[in-house]
Amino acid sequence: MISRDTHDRMANAIRFLAMDAVEKANSGHPGLPMGAADVATVLFTRYLKFDPKAPHWADRDRFILSAGHGSMLLYALLYLTGYEDMTIEDIKGFRQLHSKTAGHPEYGYADGIETTTGPLGQGIANSVGFAFAERKLREEFGADLQDHYTYVIAGDGCLMEGISQEAISLAGHLKLNKLIVFWDDNNITIDGTVGMSDSTDQHARFRASHWNTIAVDGHDPEAIAAAIEEAHKSDKPTLIACKTTIGFGSPNKAGTHKVHGSPLGADEIAATRVALNWPSPAFEIPQDILDMWRQAGSRGASVHKEWANRHAVASKKVEFDRRFAGDLPAALAPAISAYKQKLAETKPTVATRKASEDALEVINGVVPETIGGSADLTGSNNTKTSQTASITPTDFSGRYVHYGIREHGMAAAMNGMALHGGLIPYSGGFLIFSDYCRPSIRLAALMGIRVIHVLTHDSIGLGEDGPTHQPVEQMAALRAIPNLVMFRPADATETAECWQVALESKGHPSGIALTRQNLAPARTTYSEENLSAKGAYVLHEDASAQVTIFASGSEVEIAVKARELLAAKNIAARVVSVPAFELFDAQTPEYQASVIGNAKVKVGIEAAIRQGWDRFIGTDGIFVGMKSFGESAPYKELYKFFGITPEAVVDAVSAKLA
Amino acid sequence: MISRDTHDRMANAIRFLAMDAVEKANSGHPGLPMGAADVATVLFTRYLKFDPKAPHWADRDRFILSAGHGSMLLYALLYLTGYEDMTIEDIKGFRQLHSKTAGHPEYGYADGIETTTGPLGQGIANSVGFAFAERKLREEFGADLQDHYTYVIAGDGCLMEGISQEAISLAGHLKLNKLIVFWDDNNITIDGTVGMSDSTDQHARFRASHWNTIAVDGHDPEAIAAAIEEAHKSDKPTLIACKTTIGFGSPNKAGTHKVHGSPLGADEIAATRVALNWPSPAFEIPQDILDMWRQAGSRGASVHKEWANRHAVASKKVEFDRRFAGDLPAALAPAISAYKQKLAETKPTVATRKASEDALEVINGVVPETIGGSADLTGSNNTKTSQTASITPTDFSGRYVHYGIREHGMAAAMNGMALHGGLIPYSGGFLIFSDYCRPSIRLAALMGIRVIHVLTHDSIGLGEDGPTHQPVEQMAALRAIPNLVMFRPADATETAECWQVALESKGHPSGIALTRQNLAPARTTYSEENLSAKGAYVLHEDASAQVTIFASGSEVEIAVKARELLAAKNIAARVVSVPAFELFDAQTPEYQASVIGNAKVKVGIEAAIRQGWDRFIGTDGIFVGMKSFGESAPYKELYKFFGITPEAVVDAVSAKLA
């Protein structure tokens, strides 16, 4: 039992590390760590199941600091509880180049950072994926191996962002009762008091989404403890509203927005030292308090050992370990090869969204860790296969999530699943609505995690739904995100190949852009090699070519037809299929040069804007694509109207050669 | 008084127009128009204040079909009530190329379409802006000129999207009691029943945000009417939950997701004709019913005339008309000129976010229709000036909105304000969080409306906040959106010029990317001409130049220093400042060629990815910028670490020339 006095001093250790690190960096956010220190102290000293010596323990509780600007709270906790890769020197290096202690918590920079947060609302939405993964894996592997909580600290900003509504309504619907969110209810935002911009009754709001809610004094450790214990008994996710004072302890700035995102200043820190009776100099923690913290950090070792004993003899140990290592089943590659062989025989004319479903039917049969889903477009995205029964609030034996009309919440939850480990999530949505979940896609790329977004209806080829639904700039905008690989396969074979690359890539997220409309096969012979993995490859070679036509996805068919029309005019042309810009950029210069070739005229075709295509065709190349938003009409008319046709290619090439 | 039988037949007119148009197009969404026909009939025949002969009447009630896929509901209403530019031929042309009746309602295609909807949640979020504009203009011009309602029909999808939470919490906070939302509560989404993905108690949720809520049978006209009258008396915005049957009237498909987004088929339409006792052939409305509808459409003429009489003698008539015409005060241009002259004298070294505040101080002094705001970053975005007092729920005399941490809701509300007329909204946010509101920015561009986004902290120059907050790909991704002009000014003078262009552009939205860090002035002499309006211009000319350096924003300073370093090595260089790609593309080929020039080496500098820059420097040009996400550190260290320095430019140029 930790006495109140000891608790206060332990919490103050967090406060002063935060204050002093922000002061030294002359930049950062002391307010939240100082305000939420009591909540975090109770959680980490009494409840959180973790073992700093084994930070990747699969059954640890997950702690998500959704209010990522309060990063010093997390760094202080990691240091105090004894994470070996978080030293006092790391704390002193707060916000300095190459330090582990970046301005906002960055996944991968240090153990114990479960996810990258800072963009508000993302952490709480990730946490739905963490809690989902625990629930699903508990279903699959039993409570002996998976039985943990997901705890979140969220601020007012997280709760105001729309993504939080998608997250909480999904979590409440799915009854994720091991998800516990502490709301740091300090009534302060950057502009001033919350009341300047919001008057939401958060308790009523969460209860409307079937959450349990509890209100406590966020500076009363016993009240916080009682709330956590009550939450543990709930059959619903729980919001614990913790009334706190931002910058708690600062005599002149506590409770104001001045302490949110700026150093307190030497004088105010000195005053706070007096007020909190904390004589230790900066970055020095009294040994007895550090010992207490380290003892709290070692609490989990015995529980971890018990788990390890169960794990060692578990019947599903090998599969469990494979899943958490992120390794794919050996059966995947042969299954894809066999499927590609079949495609080379059947040569289907098919929409790539349907081809994706067919590929998934193969994949889901051999990769049990895939979790499919869609933002309420299941029949349009073709993301459900025979193996993926729907998950319901009371039955997690399935493998398919009806995410609802919540693209942002979906993408963020998928990030949480991938970060948790044990699952490979893939989504379904329209390419145009990647805009709705772009912040979460970006974070997946920044973190380098394996989530796969199925993005159908990928151009004006969707037809009548019109400009609001037709992607024009989305491919360019997504290709712009570093470390995201965007695929746009041309037929069923490329679709299978792209899926294989996406699954085999542990270090980046993928998007697969797919058509609504049918496409003739671009590839008609079997290739053991995954040609799409090279990003671009020569589909039709011609040593005497005057023209090279580069195209992606549905426009490869147009390129091939244009080649035939040009041949009839005695103009020889090569065709290069470009399923993934980013993968091509990773090839050797020699390979790249061989694909680009030396034909006099270079043409790029994509039913989208030109941006990015100069990389293939140069600034003097011909680009056949879109320059504006789309129109509402049957898609074949649209291709004609916007001049994206084999004939238009022939005309432009002929003019250039004339 | 319309009898129940007449009401039913009037509503059925909508149903059959929708069914038959979808059937003819073989594409579209009959379910919502059939389900919501009763609600729309009551609203349009008894309450909506509108005059089809004067569709732009400034004091009309606004009707927003947030569930835009139900577009045939709106088109049917416009035709039936007698909008002259919506004929039965237009209805027959549903979803055909160049027809007014696009798949989703497209603003500008026909009168009576108040906003473009289809991407779910946007309409309800726009409506907050419409209702805000009415409230603000009523405050300013009095109820004689502005006193109208904003009505919305929203579906389950709109309410599941996170943006709806931002919208309703803002509307509830601001007590926008003339906003009335009909929720088409049909319990059906594309995947099946709502219960598959959601179990939110919407009444409780809306009440948590201080809305009035009412539940009615959505097929009972008197209950609907009573609810509207109750809503009119409310001091809060109102949600009227209308329990409806999707596809009402279809004997075999009503109430199922089969009728949501597909034609019913000839057999089912025939069966529906029998079930609803509607013998008229497709696209023929019985004359008595058409007459009743036209009579409903003429209801507003007398009210409009009374308004016109008040308007004719109103003391603020001239200002009111100017504001709704969207014309700027004549005082703006001279004020900007005078301010630029002052800058040429003072030559301030200043962050462009601060320069933007200074420009706004000038602008807001002479343009009373600007409505500023920020998504809780007022002090960081520098968007508040001496003229813009904060608007509060009880005091709309101010001109500044504390939008809260709601970027998406902010951008969508701004679209509503601009569409309403009478106001020019500008936002404040971080450039990185343009990702959070991208769907609304895209719609502003698609609609071609004047909203202005102030986007500060525009690169790694923000420093310690790190990769989650540092834009790397956002400029490229925003430049990719057709009809959006993205500005990135280099100093205070360019900032003022960019503001002037943004304000003077009625036909497109603008984004202004601004630095956190101080910049030396790029322009030191006065130019009467707005050089930034050309998109790119020669800042430093040199007829003998071997090198041209193109740069935007904060990197112009680096370009200028590189030029000096090169000169010391006897390498002559030109410098071109590029504040806006899109405006440069609109210049004459001659002007463009004169700016691009013929120097042997071309260099582009932007602390962002290369995508898009080949337009200036060619694929063989040198690009000095970012290839990855950023890092957390003081910004000067980051510029060095990422090699975005004058020295790096000199090294690259020297290597190229060697």
From TrEMBL, chains A, B:
Q: What is its EC number?
A: 2.2.1.1
> What does UniProt list as this organism's lineage?
Bacteria, Pseudomonadati, Pseudomonadota, Alphaproteobacteria, Hyphomicrobiales
Q: How is the cofactor bound?
A: Binds 1 Mg(2+) ion per subunit. Can also utilize other divalent metal cations, such as Ca(2+), Mn(2+) and Co(2+). Binds 1 thiamine pyrophosphate per subunit. During the reaction, the substrate forms a covalent intermediate with the cofactor.
| Reactions catalysed, as given in the entry | D-sedoheptulose 7-phosphate + D-glyceraldehyde 3-phosphate = aldehydo-D-ribose 5-phosphate + D-xylulose 5-phosphate
What name goes with this protein?
Answer: Transketolase
Q: Which UniProt keywords apply?
A: Calcium, Calvin cycle, Magnesium, Metal-binding, Thiamine pyrophosphate, Transferase
Query: Any idea where the Transketolase-like pyrimidine-binding domain is?
Result: 350-522
InterPro entries this protein is in? THDP-binding, Transketo_C/PFOR_II, Transketolase-like_C_2, Transketolase-like_Pyr-bd, Transketolase_bac-like, Transketolase_BS, Transketolase_CS, Transketolase_fam
Q: Could you tell me which species this protein originates from?
A: Rhizobium setariae
- Cofactor(s) named in the record: Ca(2+); Mg(2+); Mn(2+); Co(2+)
The gene behind this protein is: tkt
| PANTHER family hit by this protein | TRANSKETOLASE (PTHR43522), TRANSKETOLASE 1-RELATED (PTHR43522:SF2)
Instruction: Show which residues form the site (Important for catalytic activity).
Output: 29, 260
| Binding-site residues for thiamine diphosphate, renumbered to this chain | 69, 118-120, 157, 186, 260, 433
List the CDD domains: TPP_PYR_DXS_TK_like, TPP_TK
Q: Which SMART domains match?
A: Transket_pyr
GO biological process: any one?
reductive pentose-phosphate cycle
GO MF terms here are: metal ion binding; transketolase activity
Family designation? Belongs to the transketolase family.
Q: Which residues bind Mg(2+)?
A: 156, 186, 188
Q: Where is the active site?
A: 407 (proton donor)
Residues bound to substrate: 29, 260, 353, 380, 457, 465, 469, 516
